[in-house]
Known about the structure:
NAD(P)-bd_dom_sf; Epimerase_deHydtase; single chain
Amino acid sequence: MGRAVEFTPGRVSVMQQPGHVVVTGAAGLVGSAIVRRLRAAGCPVVGVDRRPSPDTTVVADLRDPAAWRHALAGAGAVVHTAALHAPHVGVRPEDEFHEINVTATRDLLEASSAAGVRRFVYTSSTSVYGHALEPVDEAVWVTEDLVCRPRDIYDETKLAAERLVLSAAGAMSTVCLRIARCFPEPPAVLARHRLYRGVDMADVTQAHLLAVRGPGEAAGVLNIAGPYPWRVEDGGQLRHDPADLITRRIPEVAAGFGRHGWALPTSIDRVYVSARAGEVLGYRPRRGVTALLAEARTADHPPTSGGASPA
């Protein structure tokens, strides 16, 4: 873990080499995982969130810049994960989406630039592709070149924030990581999603570490998804008969689904493609459906050696 960061009002002192990483949304699912990954890699981290947590250093609402601006003093990079998310659509006012997802991002960018931050990493979402993900005759091959068609206020505000981040590039290099689905789900659902639209949190956090440490030319928009065994020419069969393709190409996965009594997908509507992140960042996702099935099998059959004998 990176060394501690001490704060006094309006002042930051990094107890290591200068150039700590500020992570917003540090109490959230993704933000907290990124904080832990960065610290494990030896990066001093300052976590900012309006909720106290083990990973929150500065408790502050991003809508109040005076409460968090001091955290940027001496920072080398910012990872911005804080946002209202898709589950908040229809629950929180749309004005609040704009305040938190757009205006607060603009304020953070301006403050980061003024503080001399060199690297700004924005955690976006593959959700911004919106209606463009709706297939016709083939699964949609989702690269960064696919034109986004936002569906709701979440998509709209995340995309607006991306534009702000990209337009801020200059002395401060910026990159937007569109992460695929990575929240907890039932095992059978998780396994199906890992075939085409899901990504393990370990791969998400590794992508952010690579983005923080990456060269300045590692910029723009990058998809961050899992390791999928598909090719663009598979689109028709993925849409209409993926079970046959899975059984032929990755029989061990089909067998794993069978062992657990999980149904193979009857239709796959999209495939998120991370090839560009591989080229730009060296991102190599490692924890796909095969790893998930192996862990599920181990959980079903825990090791019996080395334990106490039954009474």
